[in-house]
């Protein structure tokens, strides 16, 4: 029974993480429109690679990692913020010409992996999930089931988000796609600045 409950909680947590309007959400929409929805596969794989590491660490070292994050949270925020700002500037400056060479799948994977890895909120999310009831009361087997279910939900949700973006394509001219690209860039820069300045608030 505990396995089933953990699986349902995991699926719910994974879907919730995917639909929150973070940097990866906008990256999925933007790249799906420009490179096809199949470009979401390497992006989703980059995300769940990092999430799998966080799940593993959260299960085994929750208290120690929490202490580390508390001690170096400002440094992590600044580094993660700078990464997002850099990606944002690249997005803003992209020309998006129709003959532009498409990014290879490895590029999508590394981009998503970097953004997810340098986002301390993501690590904090997993740690908090494993630190509160009922997760902190589960046996280790149920904690593993929860993590696997959440990661599966994240992968499926992100591919679904990218696929859904294709229905918008008929209303997006090349000019509007350029505007979307710049909007994504400004969102990245905004999120990055928020991380860099988070210690002030």
Keywords:
201 residues, mainly alpha
What does this structure look like?
Helix content is 79%, strand content 0%. The chain is an all-alpha fold. It has one domain (2-200).
Task: Note the topology.
Elements: H1 2-19, H2 23-35, H3 40-93, H4 105-117, H5 120-131, H6 140-165, H7 174-196
Which sheet architecture does the biggest sheet show? none
Rg is 18 Å
Domain count: 1
The tally of strands reads 0
> End-to-end span in angstroms?
43 Å
Uncertain regions spanning at least 5 consecutive residues = 98-102
Mean pLDDT: 78
Q: Could you say which structural class the secondary elements and strand pairing correspond to?
A: mainly alpha
Number of helices: 7
Report strand %. Answer: under 5%
SSE string: HHHHHHH
- Molecular shape: globular
Percentage of residues assigned to helices: over 70%
Query: Oligomeric form of this entry?
Result: single chain
């Amino acid at each position: 029974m505990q396995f089933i409950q953990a699986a349902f909680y995991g699926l719910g947590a994974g879907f919730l993480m995917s639909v929150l309007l973070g940097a990866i959400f906008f990256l999925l929409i933007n790249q799906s429109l420009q490179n096809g929805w199949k470009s979401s596969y390497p992006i989703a794989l980059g995300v769940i690679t990092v999430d799998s590491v966080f799940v593993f660490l959260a299960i085994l070292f929750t208290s120690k990692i929490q202490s580390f994050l508390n001690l170096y949270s400002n440094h992590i925020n600044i580094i993660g913020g700078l990464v997002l700002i850099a990606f944002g500037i690249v997005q803003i400056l992209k020309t998006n010409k129709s003959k532009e060479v498409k990014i290879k799948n490895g590029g999508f994977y590394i981009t998503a992996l970097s953004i997810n890895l340098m986002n301390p909120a993501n690590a904090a999310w997993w740690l908090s999930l494993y630190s509160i009831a009922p997760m902190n009361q589960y046996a280790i087997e149920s904690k593993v089931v929860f993590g696997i279910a959440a990661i599966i939900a994240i992968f499926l949700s992100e591919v679904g988000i990218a696929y859904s973006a294709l229905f918008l394509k008929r209303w997006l001219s090349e000019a509007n796609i350029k505007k979307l690209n710049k909007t994504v860039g400004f969102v990245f820069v905004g999120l990055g600045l928020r991380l860099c300045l988070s210690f002030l608030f």
